[in-house]
Amino acid sequence: MINPLLAGGRWFAHRPLRTQILALTLVSAVVIIGMVGSISLRSRLQQAEDEAVDWAVALSVMAARTAAAPMLEKDYTTLELLIHDLIALPGVKSVTLVQPGAEIAMEARYHAEGSTTTYPINKRAPVPTAAFQRDETHVHAVSALMYETSTGKTAVFQPELASRYGWIEIEMSYSDRLASAQRDWITASLISGMLIMILVWLMSVFLRRVFGPISQLARFAANLTGRPGEVIRMRWGSLEVRELGRSLNEASRQLAERIQAEQIRLSRLQGILDTAADAILGITADGVIRSANPAAERIFGVPMQELLGYQVEKLLKDTHAAEIASSLEYGMLVSNSTTRIAKLEINAYRHDGTEFPVEVMVGEVLNDQELRYTCIVRDLSDTKLAEEYLALYSRAVDCAINGIAISDARRHPQPFVYVNPSFTRITGYAPHEILGRDGSILEGPDTNRSDIDLLYRAQQNGSDFTVVLKNYRKGGALFHNKLSVSPVRNADGEITHYINIIEDVSGQIEVKQRLIERTARLNATFDLSPDGFAVFDKEGDLVTSNPAFRAMVGDIPGWCSLKRFDSWFHTLCEDPDSCRPIEEAIKDRRKDIIAIARPAPKILEREIRKNVGGSGETILYFRDVTHQVEVDRIKSEFLATAAHELRTPLASILGFTELLLHRKYNEDRQKDMLATVHRQGTLLQNLIQELLDLSRIEARQGKDFHIVAHRLADIVRNAVGGITNADAGRVVQVQEPMEDLLVMADATKIEQALTNLLSNAFKYSPNGGTVSLRVESAEHEGEPVALVHISDQGIGMTPEQLSRVFERFYRADTSGNIPGTGLGLNLVREIAQIHDGDVTLSSQFGVGTVATLRLKLASLTTEEPVTANA
Fold it and tell me: Tens digits of per-residue pLDDT, 427-463?
């Protein structure tokens, strides 16, 4: 069997192409007809079977939908008509109607002579498990009876629905369909066979015409590689043959162009090798250098004539042929090839023996009888130096006291890609916890959103930005973060990263806050101090002065040096020569007492300090001692006056008692002298009592006053009643009726003040005259007050006497005829002022005086009890 096949194969191989094509076409046609016929027959039979199944299933579904309602209503007449209609359809062999519960309700079968319908009793049918079942010629289609409900039922067969609602089963035969499909196939096969035979005959005629030009093209193609660029000219032939001819001509042209392009490429490659920055060496299998580019001569410093023929280990340290082969054995495979490459970092030798670091890429050379390896050598001297500097910079960044984080601006939302140890120390976040996160991880409830918005705007503008934020550490502790952000740009000017430098300034903020508070307290003390200050910097320029100093001396010149200030201040002094220059006063710490005449007469105490240990400021301290000096003067005058006032009655008492002790006088004379002693003793007693009252009032500042709401009329009547003496001519005319006014007062003290005023009115009216008292209500500075007017028709006072009337020990009468101590009006004023009131006098010499006592009215809502004096 094998020998005939081999003989046929040899015969076929030596036949012309036309014969081979015809033979193959004929054999292929027969094989194809057989295969396609078989496949077509099976396809047609399967199609007929599937159509029968689809028809049976569709018919069962339609019948089930139609029979559902009659079955529900037990309308067997309608069901029987439906079954008769179904059994009459072509191909239907039987119809079985099963009611709910799987009990057969009706059954119909088709016979050659007709159909029969039966109603089995208590016959149950097995519940079907599929929508259809089929055998070689029959199909049984099943569909559940579906009742229309509010929820609806699907048409997909479900065994549980069939058991619940019943079903209808239709048996259908499709043998007729199969027989019809076979007849159609036989007819189509015969027609196809005839057509194929005709096509084979036509093809044989066509091949005779075609293969002549093809033979010519075959000869041209055989000689194409030896004569690239030649052209064949076809005089006749089919379109394909002519296209093939044109293609061969195009291939001849492209081959010539490619050969030329390859020559150009080789020339360019040689140019690249000659201009490459890295050294490229061609090495034989035994490690001898056979080719090198100019960069090798430059890197190693060996002339090209000497370089060729060098052993590679003379240039690359510890690198010989066996080492190269070993490195390639474990090297990387080049994609889509079996070639391997290896990468080495070793030291190389220059011509003078100096070692330097290099990176060597070793590759295999295939299909070359002389070269075995290629080595690309790159000088790493600059790279290593850059790496050392980079490591140094990285170490410096790691040792920085401030936290440094680098964020990627090309990714959202600019995650951190690097943090240094100080960042972890400040925030508490380890690198694996913070890398990939953005700066919002440090934000919290106290972080100012406006500062964050300013930061985002600065980043959008690509500008540097510094802001102090309230951030939170990992443990939730708040810290003040001085954040400085700076963009990093690539060669195109695009921002690729941001450098974020964080600095924990919580301590600085706290110190600054304390400094601000301390400065505020000092400024408040400075501004509120009653003493004056003027501060000059180390250059001698005035930097500040407080309000108290400006109130003492008035407006200070706008720009003022220490010398100019000294000259200006001398112009304010009453006696400029008595005021020492500042340069002289700085040398010691003595205090200067200076009297100034402008803007108002004052006596100032000056002290000067130079802040040698600080910034070299000069501080001038001024204290207004005008009141103190005046108090000292008044005290001296008071002591002199008091001594005089006390000595006068004592001298009289001592003189008369001495006369009474050493001499004898008649009874009348003794009485007269004793009356004088008694009078001077009473005067001395009153003087001492008033001095004690004044001293008590000044010392206690009214703390022993019991000020409550009183009816003013009761106080006035008590005072008038206490001083009135008709026999002595002391009668006070009180204007009646008096207003019923409530005043806030210590009744005893106000009564004492009124008594003093009434007593003065009588004493300074030696020639008699009317003393009257009038009470009225009025307003003073917007508040209601009570006014008590006491007027007399006495001797009156001059304006000069009136201006000094409230001074202690001052008396308008210098003759001594009118008794008194000169303390009464001063006492009245002290009492009135403690009551938030005052006393005023108006007088005309020779006409009389009017004294007015002003008291504060009690509020209508006062909680103090209203008292009345009996």
Answer: 888 888 888 888 888 888 888 888 788 888 887 787 8
One-letter identity of residue 16: P
Strands (E), 218-324: 279-283, 289-292
Phi, psi of 593, rounded to the nearest 5 degrees: -100, 120
Alpha helices in 529-622 (DSSP H): 547-553, 562-570, 582-586
Q: Which of 34 and 745 is assigned the larger pLDDT?
A: 745
Question: Is-contact 381 354, C-beta < 8 A?
Answer: no
Residue with tokens 């910097």: 537
Can you say whether residue 353 is alpha, beta or left, with left for phi > 0 and alpha for psi between -120 and 50 degrees? left
Nearest to 806 by CA among 780, 834, 825, 785: 825
pLDDT, one tens digit per residue, over 777-792 is 888 888 888 888 988 8
Contacts of 861 (CB under 8 A, 6+ apart): none
């199609």: which residue's tokens?
47
Q: List CB contacts of 497: < 8 A, sequence separation 6 or more.
A: 406, 407, 408, 409, 417, 487, 488
Contacts of 655 (CB under 8 A, 6+ apart): none
The kind and range of the H/E element at 67 are helix 17-73
Q: Specify whether the CB–CB gap between 146 and 127 falls below 8 A.
A: no
Going 714 to 717 to 721 to 723, the CA torsion angle's sign is positive
| pLDDT average, residue stretch 613-635 | 75
Q: Look at strands 592-596 and 495-504 and give their pairing.
A: unpaired
pLDDT, tens digit (0-9, with 9 covering 90-100), for 483-521: 888 888 888 888 888 888 888 888 888 888 888 888 788
CA dist., res. 374 & res. 336, Å (int): 19
Taking only the tens place, the pLDDT of each residue in 558-587 is 778 888 888 888 888 888 877 888 877 877
Which of 310, 524, 503, 342 minimizes the C-alpha distance to 422? 503
Mean pLDDT for 677-704 is 65
Decide if 484 contacts 464 (C-beta within 8 A): yes
The CA-atom distances, in angstroms, between 304 and each of 209, 284, 540 are: 66, 17, 80
User: Which tokens belong to 72?
Assistant: 């529900």
Around Cβ 612, how many Cβ atoms within 10 Å? 8
Q: What is the SS3 assignment for 731? A: coil
- pLDDT at site 687: 66
Buried/exposed code over 48-84 (b: 16+ C-beta within 10 A; e: otherwise):
bbeebbebbbebbbebbbbbbebbeeeeeeebbebbe
- Residue 24 above 50 pLDDT? yes
What residues form DSSP beta bridges with 784? 779
Residue of 688, 700, 694 lying closest to 828 (CA atoms)? 694
Orientation angle between helical segments 76-87 and 17-73, nearest 10 degrees: 160
